[in-house]
Amino acid sequence: MKIRPLHDRIVVRRKEEETATAGGIILPGAAAEKPNQGVVISVGTGRILDNGSVQALAVNEGDVVVFGKYSGQNTIDIDGEELLILNESDIYGVLEA
Amino acid sequence: MKIRPLHDRIVVRRKEEETATAGGIILPGAAAEKPNQGVVISVGTGRILDNGSVQALAVNEGDVVVFGKYSGQNTIDIDGEELLILNESDIYGVLEA
Amino acid sequence: MKIRPLHDRIVVRRKEEETATAGGIILPGAAAEKPNQGVVISVGTGRILDNGSVQALAVNEGDVVVFGKYSGQNTIDIDGEELLILNESDIYGVLEA
Amino acid sequence: MKIRPLHDRIVVRRKEEETATAGGIILPGAAAEKPNQGVVISVGTGRILDNGSVQALAVNEGDVVVFGKYSGQNTIDIDGEELLILNESDIYGVLEA
Amino acid sequence: MKIRPLHDRIVVRRKEEETATAGGIILPGAAAEKPNQGVVISVGTGRILDNGSVQALAVNEGDVVVFGKYSGQNTIDIDGEELLILNESDIYGVLEA
Amino acid sequence: MKIRPLHDRIVVRRKEEETATAGGIILPGAAAEKPNQGVVISVGTGRILDNGSVQALAVNEGDVVVFGKYSGQNTIDIDGEELLILNESDIYGVLEA
Amino acid sequence: MKIRPLHDRIVVRRKEEETATAGGIILPGAAAEKPNQGVVISVGTGRILDNGSVQALAVNEGDVVVFGKYSGQNTIDIDGEELLILNESDIYGVLEA
Q1: Hey, what domains does chain B have and what are their CATH numbers?
Q2: F74 in G contact zone (CB under 8 Å)
Q3: What is the pTM of this model?
Q4: How far is it between the farthest Cα atoms of chain D?
Q5: What number of helices (H) and strands (E) belong to chain B?
Q6: Tell me, how does this one assemble (chains A, B, C, D, E, F, G)?
């Protein structure tokens, strides 16, 4: 099952907490705060402007996005997995290698 | 009797709580929180934009929609059944198989 | 005497409480909450949009309308009868047989 | 002396309390609440829309208007008489015989 | 020294309290509330609308204007005299003989 | 070093308190309240309107401006001097000789 | 790794506190307040106006910007470095030599 988000909404799978350093050392308690990053699962068709035109979103499926500390409260369960529903305006930017 | 919703309003039949697992095991108390999903019964003619044009809604009769935790407070009784009145902006997306 | 509502306002006669079932059995105390339904008595000429055009209302005289629990606070007395003044945006939809 | 109201403002003379019934019976204390009706004394030239055009008001001098319970707080004294300053949006409608 | 108000701002000299009746009788304590009237000293070039056009103000230098009870908090001192800075929207109307 | 303000922002050097009268008499404690006047140091390129056009500001470098009592909270240090950052909408008008 | 900010967002590296004077004298405790200045690392593609056009931002990569005391709360960690996410409207201006 999947979800088709409406308009300027974006479905995001939150990045899992990293509880170990790159070198593999376990950091107990280090993951108390959930990371504000995730992978875009699907995007809406765009934001509807006052003049009726539709502005396509600036993120794409597969993008790794960073979002605000206080975003990510809206969640849905899809096949037992919790996904986030964000608005495009919740997203700060896209991480690039 | 049925209701014809105005403009960007949508009538939704809330999904019933599942109190048993897929395998049929009863989960007592598991349904304390109402599911934020439902089936679209009827949709309005569309949202009226500032320039006077009408934007048709992005959901259709029969769609299974997911909506916010704090939506679904507006209810009406039609032939003894409680239905929800949502705005299109309350809806996160449409579930697809 | 009658009232000609301005713009997007609508005059509604609230449906009387039903204190008996269809079969005629009296339900004492059953009507504690006022029904959020009524019949449209008269409608304004329409909502004025930002571009100056007038959008005719989507309800008509005689329609049975359903409105929000917290609407219906604005009342006027016409010939000794209390009528409601609603905005079109207070109205969820129109009941149809 | 008279006042020329600006734009969408309307000058209204509040209807006097009726402390007797049509049959002439005095109703002591019956007029505790001020009536939300009045006669239009003068109207502004119209509401200025975002596109710069002017929308003439939908009420005229001499109309008997009904307004909200919480409107009518803005008053001016003209030749010793207290008059109300309303916005057109404060007015529910016009009473007609 | 004088002030050139910007856009939709208006400089007003508040009418002095009248502490005597027309017949010259002194009314002690009668002027506790400042009058909400004044003479327009200068007006801005107009309100800028969303479409970029400028709407000239509907009051002119020398007009006697009435304004809201809670307007008139913004003051400036010009050559030792306190003048009011109002927005056009603070003004109810213009008094005419 | 200088600052180029963005859009409708204006950099202002606040007028120094005058602690002596024109005749040179010192007024102790007279300057408790900061004057709401200042000289414009630099102005932004203009306010961007909803239709995308840019509206040039109505004040110029060197103008003496008066601003609201509660404006002037935003300050920056340029070469050890505190300057104010105002929006054009904070400014009441321009003083002229 | 780098971040591509969306629309009117701007990534800024906050200026480090200067704890010594120009002459090299250490000022203990002088840096209690974080400086509201920083260098622009990357800028979004522009602000989307109501008419659907995109307004390019007025700051560029490498600009030294000054921003409000209460901005700069939104941070992201990029390769272990804390960067600020600002909106263009948070920025007062650009410092120039």
Answers
A1: 9-17+30-95 (2.30.33.40)
A2: yes
A3: 0.85
A4: 54
A5: 0, 9
A6: Heptamer of 7 subunits arranged in a ring. Interacts with the chaperonin GroEL.
